[in-house]
């Protein structure tokens, strides 16, 4: 789309919270509702990305230029009306969490244990959710009480936070890593490093795959976005 505004600014709404105005008119979601947030810093950051998008009036832009807007729009339009659906979808990742599956290769399995077990121990201690570890790819059944505890941990997040987890958890393939990122236990870059231990290990033996590297770079960007969005929502 072409940029049709000169100025994007964040404002306080009379009814509470914050909004973004484009040349004095509210920035609206595709469904027509005004974009709104309780976080002043998030509104300022969204205004900044709209001010930069397309560079100047008449310039070309896409929604890729306004990623914070996309996440807040997801939270407002899709998550907030029915948080239970997002909670259920994210909690399901606990059933097959990446960190619970160790390789048959002894060297890789030792690396996985050293790097991943502290996060599983954290989930057990903080969320009361000990998970069973297995070797190979055959599914392992996790304790129902642990899965319920992880579901409760996800459900404790607000709509905006759930939207960020909705980006992070699928990118990581791990609910435990996603919850650790949300809690500030690990940073986005560290979460990403832990999630790709297997790939990096294999690349050292067999060489790099350009497509896999590109996919990893995209995932790293998405995780950094989720981390930034969480920080702004909570500021």
UniProtKB/TrEMBL annotation:
Belongs to the ATP12 family. Pfam families: ATP12. This is Chaperone, ATP12. Keywords: Chaperone, Transit peptide. It comes from the Bacteria. GO terms for biological process: proton-transporting ATP synthase complex assembly.
């Amino acid at each position: 789309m072409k940029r049709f505004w000169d100025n994007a600014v964040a404002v306080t709404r009379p009814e509470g919270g914050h909004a973004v105005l484009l040349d004095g008119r509210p920035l609206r979601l595709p469904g027509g509702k005004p974009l709104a947030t309780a976080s002043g810093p998030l509104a300022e950051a969204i205004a900044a990305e709209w001010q930069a998008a397309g560079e100047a009036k008449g310039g070309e832009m896409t929604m890729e230029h306004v990623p914070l807007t996309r996440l807040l729009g997801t939270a407002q339009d899709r998550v907030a009306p029915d948080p239970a659906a997002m909670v259920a979808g994210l909690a399901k990742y606990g059933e097959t969490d990446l960190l619970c599956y160790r390789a048959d290769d002894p060297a890789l399995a030792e690396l996985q244990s050293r790097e991943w077990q502290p996060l599983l121990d954290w989930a057990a201690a903080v969320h009361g959710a000990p998970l069973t570890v297995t070797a190979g790819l055959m599914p392992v059944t996790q304790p129902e009480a642990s899965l319920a505890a992880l579901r409760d941990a996800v459900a404790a997040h607000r709509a905006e936070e759930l939207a960020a987890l909705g980006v992070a958890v699928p990118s990581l393939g791990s609910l435990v890593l996603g919850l650790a990122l949300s809690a500030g236990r690990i940073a986005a870059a560290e979460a990403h490093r832990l999630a790709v231990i297997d790939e990096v290990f294999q690349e050292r033996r067999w060489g790099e795959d350009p497509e896999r590297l590109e996919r990893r770079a995209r995932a790293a960007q998405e995780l950094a976005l989720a981390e930034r969005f969480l920080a702004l929502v909570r500021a």
